[in-house]
């Protein structure tokens, strides 16, 4: 429309010439969502941000089921709707890690211990007895699921 050739538009916009050709042949508008058909989404971006903020707020927020998360954020939608919208932005539900990631202090203590005792002979280690932690719980016997992204596996809240 401005009197430029496709090659000139391609050079100005730094896109391939064929892309400009496809734009010229296309009859629909380039505005996102302008020609969208179908049922409107139940949740907008602000609702999704509110859900994500609730998930990141605490351990309790991560443990909430999809339905309880919706209710907690004041949304009148079913759990499957929450699941679909959050999975679209990368969140999923999975089992909580059995043992939490060790703290920075514990990491430093382990490195220090290894440096101090790394050169001991095998006989030294045969004499010592080590026991792992043991935890007894009388509540919440079921499997705990948390909401997280795949890269958040070792996050302290997961």
From TrEMBL:
Region of interest (Disordered), ranges: 19-41
Instruction: Give the GO molecular function terms.
Output: DNA binding
Matches recorded under Pfam families: HTH_Tnp_Tc3_2
One of its GO biological process terms is: DNA transposition
Q: Which InterPro entries match?
A: Cro/C1-type_HTH (IPR001387), Lambda_DNA-bd_dom_sf (IPR010982), RNaseH_sf (IPR036397), Transposase_Tc1-like (IPR002492)
Please indicate which superkingdom the organism of origin belongs to: Eukaryota
Report the residue ranges that make up the Transposase Tc1-like domain in this protein.
61-117
Query: Mind telling me which CDD domains this protein's record contains?
Result: HTH_XRE
UniProt family annotation: Belongs to the MBF1 family.
Instruction: Describe the task this protein carries out.
Output: Transcriptional coactivator that stimulates GCN4-dependent transcriptional activity by bridging the DNA-binding region of GCN4 and TBP (SPT15), thereby recruiting TBP to GCN4-bound promoters. Involved in induction of the ribosome quality control (RQC) pathway; a pathway that degrades nascent peptide chains during problematic translation. Required to prevent stalled ribosomes from frameshifting.
Its recorded name reads Multiprotein-bridging factor 1
Question: In which organism is this protein found?
Answer: Ascobolus immersus RN42
Lineage, broadest ranks: Eukaryota, Fungi, Dikarya, Ascomycota, Pezizomycotina
